């Protein structure tokens, strides 16, 4: 405040080391209340490098998150808690960067993260290594950052030999050329400061050469952003950039594989009608604030899914929204149709979605009634297959399950034989050899596995089949009966257990540490899952609610001879009772069971999911599954930038309850559609989709690997043997 009173525009520095997010936001609001126009936001050095090495660091936020917090306060008028703030602060947001800290190749990218978060000017570490700084600035320009953020090169003349030795030896990331030391040592001690200033003022000095660097403004040490001594700095009134509220739109194109090749998507043609509709005047709805709009384009590979080609997703606690596009659908649609859909989606968002028959309240995706539909499908699979005239496997890619392929079956059995032979030689092989299959389908996989086992055991000559106990587990008694018929030739070696894949220990606790092989195929992708998204460096939970589009709801109601409003109650009854009991309870609407199944199929085909983003107050407040905190997700979300990924709650729960069954020499094999790298979630849509009457999602493989490691298991992933398949084989072994 003294600087402001003296006519010097102050820059307040704020570090993350000493305060939590509550105190940091309080300081930012205090600065705004006092009229401080500029803030410089830093992570801060650890206390061990200062004169209070025993002080406890805080680091609740890092510098990127603090920059984003300041921008949210200014541009959106809200705290991290979502609480609104009025009036909004109006300050210029700055960050720092060290162009010389290793690895040097990362520095411009790190500055890019701060610029994306909201930084409008950047102060660098002292620049003595001008060629290195020039390389940094060239990359800053190449990345387009110079157009969005002023870079102020830090220049500090060294006033003494002691200061020279300190900067050269004790300040990380600063390189002071030997020439500077030679010049300072070549003059009397009382002339060192003058020589340092003389060095800085020469045309060849770092000060002069920094000013000549593209897109760079030098900022002498001790000079404020708007000081008269810094006539062309970003903080000066003549050149100071103002917040660009409403001046830019963030567009994210995720299906990167679709942007090249002979069948590449024509993005210009696909997106032109979208932005044409967003910018065209509309007398019936307020125009969207483009500065608060995110446009995200996916390529939804599932022909049957829960998304509309164009939809609007609110971000709770903010005026910002996300316009979600299915690039696959809009790229093949007529431009006028795309523009109409965009206008309708925006109007529906403002009008409160009058064209949707909502079936449930907002909630986490794993709690949505689509999973009740999923359970209904497997519990009443026979009725569905009778109505469609085909088995469920015909809906899978290729029209068959990968579980019955002989090559991986023979490989797994050969591995078992090798393990058992080794244990038998040491007289450590149990008399009873247990194998467990979770999710048995129609039993074809088990039949293939057991037939192959018998043939290989005869060749092997160890009579392991006599000792084998093969347990087939599924939560549907009907499915188990189908499987029992298909493995009838192995009745003496098979057992059948009704079991929920989410809680295998409820029925199998007696097998703890006894099972040599657990086989799971296409189960995890069919279990409930939430989705977590990072938006602007903050984690959000994706909440959903199921609905029927108004036109489809009206058509279904007309077919039943009932009202549009009664459908929500009928859907609830269907999911609770099933088609047989629904027909008994409402004979006027459903004269027989096939009529109830037809209603079920019509609702399933029409049901969609509306989505919104709800901020999380820290990952530690989120629970993946009982006993599993959300912090397990931290390494997967730490790659920088925005990402949206499955939590795979059901898969994580099932996996955590299954691995304790394994013998110390046991193994778990799972064939499923796994994402094996978090980066995959940045480059493509991973579900949910519809396979006939069930739900399908890709499974978060890195999360299961992280969970397995914490429980003492090595988890690996390998491509499935059939070329062209999305199936991946996950293997879990007890760590040596």
Folded structure, characterized:
The protein has 24 helices and 29 strands. It is of the alpha/beta class and 736 residues long. The strands form 7 sheets. It has a 7-stranded mixed β-sheet, sandwiched between helices. A 6-stranded parallel β-sheet has the order 1-2-3-4-5-6, covered by helices on one side. A hairpin with a 2-residue loop joins β25 (689-691) and β26 (694-696).
Count of DSSP E strands? 29
Low-confidence stretches at least 5 residues in length (pLDDT < 50)? 203-209, 218-247
**Termini, distance in Å?**
63 Å
Radius of gyration from the alpha-carbon trace, in angstroms: 32 Å
Summed up, what is this model?
By secondary structure, the protein is an alpha/beta fold. The chain is built from 24 helices and 29 strands.
Features:
29 strands; alpha/beta; 36% helix; 7-stranded mixed beta sheet
Question: Topology, pairings included?
Answer:
Layout: H1 2-5, E1 11-15, H2 21-33, E2 38-42, H3 63-76, E3 92-97, H4 107-117, E4 121-126, H5 130-142, E5 150-155, H6 161-170, H7 178-185, H8 192-201, H9 206-212, E6 216-220, E7 250-253, H10 267-279, E8 293-298, E9 310-314, E10 321-326, H11 327-331, H12 335-351, E11 356-358, E12 363-364, H13 370-379, H14 381-388, H15 406-425, E13 433-438, H16 444-460, E14 468-474, H17 477-486, E15 494-498, H18 505-508, E16 515-521, E17 531-535, E18 538-549, H19 550-560, H20 567-585, H21 593-606, E19 608-615, E20 623-625, E21 628-629, H22 634-637, E22 643-646, H23 649-658, E23 662-672, E24 674-675, E25 689-691, E26 694-696, E27 699-700, H24 701-710, E28 713-719, E29 728-734
Parallel strand pairs: 1-2, 2-3, 3-4, 4-5, 5-6, 7-8, 8-10, 13-14, 13-16, 14-15, 16-23, 24-27
Antiparallel strand pairs: 9-10, 11-18, 12-18, 17-18, 17-22, 18-19, 20-21, 23-29, 25-26, 28-29
